[in-house]
Specification:
alpha/beta, binds guanosine-5'-triphosphate, 15 helices, 13 strands, Gyrase A, domain 2, Four Helix Bundle (Hemerythrin (Met), subunit A), single chain, 7-stranded mixed sheet, binds magnesium ion
């Protein structure tokens, strides 16, 4: 994000562009009141009262009839004087209202700039600002719940508790540094080690939520794979509830990968149908499709191997050895007599023709991906990749402090590591001097947020 003056007054359309009954525009900054005075004809501003009036052009003619609400600093979303304008939701009309606001002193806001200001004014910590984004993009109740908890400051509170424990340990260590003649006595050393270990356990518990955090935010990449004609596309259609992929009895029907998201027991499942795998594709297009299947498999969270259980087993699939990928076997076409070779198989029998076994499959998928969900349930927050990187740095620094303390190294070394750990924890909730970090986070926001 280019460096933008935080002293400017910014304006943007906060509702999605397009037509609708109502559109919402926001103005925030020191000139918000004067922008309203210049562009709004109606009752005089009163805090938090919706006022009916008009946005007018320079000659005083109305552009639109609007409802305008003034939120004086600091009791506003951004912490600054803020004006919210609800106008009619037409493309042209919202453009004209916004242009008028820009004419009388506001500049167009950059993506995420309203939330960035809320952060800069201490209304939100960085984890809460990120939660605004999570909230907007949540696709399931579970993801929404995690975003709400984070917006509520749950992660910030976990971090604060860790920081306080860490500071208490550091205070002890620094006392020894201030009195250099005293070595850390073994009893104190022991007690401090125990406290460090408890901190490390809490850090690990937070880190253990990272996997679920990613699944909730990005969805579970679920790849349907198998021989041609096994019924992958039929199964995709069944799970989606509509005919998305072409189904036919010609092997090699699906060429390109097809991706759709469903809500499965609260998890966003990104279902990916693929070209059937066979060693002798009939043309270069099918071969290209098979190459795509392999690249989808490499990044799968869950692989559903689909077999036609009325036939003998096909040659084994060459699946990538990824320890984080879960596997389930679907014994498809269970409406047909099962081939004896599958008699003792542990796969889930499913028929896309009759619908039999689909609820069992959904249940099993949910149980498979929820595996390890205790960490999530216990912490009630799910960290994202950025938090995870900060927490890993904190963990490494704590490990090093632990080693230094147990080897009775000088107190300065221990203190240095503890400072590094504190810094890394501080980065989770946001330190104001980390410009690049801020840019990277807020530029993912949409304009007007
Ligand atoms: N009896 C039975 N036939 C099925 C079932 N599911 C799919 N089929 C049939 O199997 C054939 C292949 O189905 P598809 O869904 O196109 O199979 P696919 O695995 O996507 O095949 P490719 O795209 O060629 O790799 C079609 O004739 C389907 O009607 C099932 O549950 N029972
Ligand atoms: Mg297919």
């Amino acid at each position: 994000m280019p460096s933008l003056s935080p002293d400017d007054t910014i304006a943007a359309l906060s509702s999605p562009p397009g037509t609708g009954a109502v559109a919402l525009l926001r103005v925030s900054g020191p000139l918000a009141q004067s922008v309203a005075h210049a562009a709004f004809r109606g009752p005089s501003l009163q805090p938090r009262r919706a006022l009916l009036g008009h946005i007018t052009d320079p000659s005083g003619d109305p552009i639109d009839e609007v409802l305008l609400t003034f939120f004086p600093a600091p009791a506003s979303y951004t912490g600054e004087d803020t004006i919210e304008i609800s106008c009619h939701g037409g493309l042209l009309i919202t453009r004209k209202v916004l242009d008028r606001l820009l004419q009388v002193g506001a500049r167009h806001a950059a993506p995420g700039e309203f939330t960035q200001r809320a952060f800069l004014h201490g209304k939100l910590d960085l984890t809460q600002a990120e939660a605004v984004m999570d909230l907007i993009s949540a696709q399931t109740d579970r993801a929404l719940h995690a975003a709400h908890r984070q917006l509520d400051g749950a992660l910030g509170r976990h971090i604060l508790a860790l920081q306080q424990d860490l500071l208490a340990i550091l205070a002890h260590i620094e006392a020894y540094i201030d009195f250099p003649d005293d070595d850390i006595d073994p009893d104190t050393g022991h007690a401090l080690l125990a406290r460090l270990e408890s901190l490390q356990r809490q850090l690990l518990a937070l880190l253990a939520t990272a996997h679920h955090g990613r699944l909730l935010r990005e969805g579970v990449r679920t790849v349907l794979v198998g021989a041609p004609n096994a019924g992958k596309s039929s199964l995709l259609n069944q799970l989606l509830g509509f005919e998305r992929a072409i189904v036919s009895d010609l092997p090699g029907t699906t060429r390109d990968t097809i991706e759709e998201v469903i809500n499965l027991h609260g998890f966003p499942l990104r279902l990916i149908d693929t070209a059937g795998l066979r060693s002798a594709p009939c043309d270069p297009i099918e071969a290209a499709g098979i190459a795509r299947t392999h690249s989808q498999l490499a990044s799968a969270d869950l692989i559903l191997t689909v077999v036609d259980a009325s036939l003998p087993p096909p040659p084994p699939l060459d699946l990538p050895p990824n320890p984080n990928t879960r596997h389930l076997l679907v014994l498809h076409k269970s409406d047909l007599p099962r081939h004896p070779a599958w008699q003792y198989s542990s796969g889930v029998p499913v028929s896309s023709h009759t619908g039999a076994g689909l609820p069992d499959l959904a249940q099993l998928i949910a149980a498979t991906i929820a595996d390890g969900g205790e960490a999530l349930a216990q912490m009630d927050v799910a960290v994202n990749a950025r938090h995870q990187a900060c927490l890993l740095r904190a963990q490494a620094a704590l490990q090093s402090a632990h080693a230094a303390l147990s080897q009775q190294a000088s107190a300065e070394f221990v203190a240095l590591d503890l400072h590094l750990a504190l810094e890394a924890l501080g980065d989770v909730v946001g330190r104001l001097d980390v410009e690049d970090l801020l840019g990277a986070i807020f530029s993912q926001f949409c304009i007007g947020k």
